[in-house]
Design a protein that fits this description.
By secondary structure, the chain is α/β, with parallel strands linked by helices. 30% of the residues are buried.
């Protein structure tokens, strides 16, 4: 069985992706770092954050990194612990709203992932399968999220898509054998 040090876990809202990534991290190591990207801008988000915190016991070390994710991963990763980042979608939203260069920030995260000396689980939303957003900002975010997911998939050893709490391995994929004629 192959060991995957960098895993991207994709899924829609309430697909079970965060729960699954947390279970995998807990099964993999007793030393765990949770890097949270959410910012509590309103009551509903504060409740979501509280719910996620309640699912983790005291064995988790939690770090907040709404903007400087590459640095937080770099400082947290190690061969003796697993790092779980939840989630890339909120991080992308944060850096876009902060006026940062998304391409540069994603590149820095890719560099950190490629040299990481320990396992990293990344959680991200797949947002491109729904309706086309009605606003230019919404369409720009959807497009940036799609590019982010593609680049993270490139940097990761494995990609898992979660739907209805069920995982589907996307990468590594079995070879495609096409025969024409």
């Amino acid at each position: 069985m192959a060991v995957h040090r960098r895993v991207l876990v994709l899924g829609g809202a309430r697909s079970g992706k965060s729960r699954m990534a947390q279970q995998w991290a807990e099964a993999a190591s007793s030393t765990r770092v949770f890097i949270a990207t959410a910012q509590p801008f309103d009551e509903e988000m504060r409740e979501r954050i509280a719910h996620h915190r309640a699912t983790r016991d005291s064995s988790w070390l939690t770090k907040e990194a709404p903007l400087d994710l590459a640095e937080a991963v770099h400082l947290s990763v190690g061969p003796d612990r697993i790092v779980l980042v939840d989630c890339l979608t909120l991080w992308l939203s944060n850096i876009m709203l902060d006026g940062r260069d998304a391409d540069r920030e994603i590149g820095m995260l890719m560099d950190v992932l490629r040299t990481a000396e320990g396992p990293v689980l990344l959680v991200s939303n797949e947002v491109g399968q729904g309706i086309v957003p009605p606003t230019a900002l919404g369409r720009r975010f959807r497009d940036e999220q799609g590019r982010l997911n593609q680049r993270m998939a490139e940097a990761c050893d494995a990609v898992v898509f979660v739907a209805a709490g069920c995982p589907l391995l996307l990468k590594p994929a079995p070879p495609v054998n096409l025969h024409l004629g």
